[in-house]
Amino acid sequence: MLNKNSIRTLFLALSLAFTACQKDKLDNVQINLIPKDIDLTPSAVRIIDLYGLNHVKANGDSLTNFSPPVTGEVFRFPATAYFSGDGRFGNHWWSDNNIDGKVGAIWNIPKKLFKQDGSIDLEFYNLTLGGTIDEFAAYSIKNSDSPRDHYVSPFHTYAYGGSSYFVEVPRETSAPKEGYFKIRLLNLSAPVSTPVAAYGQLEDLTGPMTLTYADGSAVDAKTNAVAIGKASEYVEIPYGTYQFKALTQTNKIVPGTSGNMTYRTIDPGTSSIAISRFEPSDVIYSSIQTFQPGGIYTIVITPMSFEYFRNELGYKYMLKQNAITVIADVAEPINTSLFRVQGFNATPDKKIRFSANGKEIGSTVPFAQSTSYSSFTPSEQAFEIKDENGIVLDKLTYIARPNENYTLWSYPDPQGQIKIGLTVNNLSALMPIAGTEADGTYAYTKNSFPTDFRFVNLCPDIPYLSITADDGQPLGEKGNKAVYNLQPGIFTTTAPYIRATFKQLMAYRSAPGVIPGTWAEDIPVIKGQDLIANKDLYQRIGKVLPPYETGIYTIALIGRTGPNVPNAQKARLVILKHNK
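Above: the chain sequence. Below: its structure as tokens.
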């Protein structure tokens, strides 16, 4: 029986042989480089290439350009009728989602490419810039009336004892119930080898896998312990912004994939983002994204390309490690029908009920607690806060828009009245670039792994609040109105978010023209590790606790100050995380 190394050696030999005998064919391939009016009506069959093959033929006809870059434009390639972006299979070379410059193709095979008997013969190539063959795979499949995906990775050969790069998986396209999306876990994990002996063994991230939320809590029993080579059933979840993770049976976190060069550089022994050759961050990449109502998604685990620091000079080598990737099983819908809203009670001596046009938002909540999210149809909304006896304390009218995320706040004002406030939460991970337009209209940056903060002052006893990082160091630009001189119940609306990491956050009593002011020693600091929702996720397997957890947060100062304030009502900074 051939072992893994023997299979690799045989595969390489076959590839070289193929290169030698096919060179003339590749040199003389006929390509129509100009997109033409052609029937591209998709079939129900898709190819999901997570490995990185960059050229394809169907029934002997070339669909990609099989050509070197356009003269003078190193990373641009001529388009073809079937691949109008850059004439290549996979992501465009310059795509932000790229890893290895080409991985991530989702291709609906056009109906017209299937032969009369319903079959199609596919040949996939990975060509170097010089035109030589680096990888080759041939595959014949039948058309299907029911939706089916064919996932591509050579590691399937080694993991499942087969001879094909492809694993066929049926998929669903029937819509979930209103306000929900469908998701499942596909486990195509496979053994990977360590890069160098000096680094020790790579983490073993194979075996049955469980789909979890950001804090490591299981999504559903149906997505627990999914065996290698299997897909779970779909489960329905309320739409929203999530950071899904996958855990092995030994509770290790499987990293995610990203085109961002920082996030794809990992420490081999911990799978966390590497800071340097000798310093792991202990923070494991998992993307944060909004899953839309009506959407259907697969989270697939399969070996993907990463890098690691080879030496202290910053030189990097490639490695493979099992990783999660989110695949849209249907074209992701645009949310034009719903918004989400939650309530937070910052009123020290009352339990609060929140409602929208008379409909309850979650349940009655005590001081320093938030409701769950509720979804409603966009329209002019009468938002109300009531005490636990149903007496209306305050209300506001607001035109709620689709696909937006809101938090309602109940808080005491300096005059002793209980008020309602509203913030629009930015869960898009878009941030304006410093020094440009405040709203980022023309200059913004997007990060799929953000640590974004909004700060709110809901303590009537501190007229001006400023927040700093470690030991009073500025958090962002000094004087930023999102951080300094925050007044009770006044919510910053222009560039209200700060993107930062920190060891601790400190509250200061400030004043106009005086920032940050005097450190409020009576208000406990917030440490970066306080952002970790479930420390047991790391500690139960003996991992180092990361310095923080990514997410989109509001940090609010709530409570009262003074000598006669009960301990439970004393002023403090609280953390409200908006993604799950």
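Residues 1-170 form one domain.
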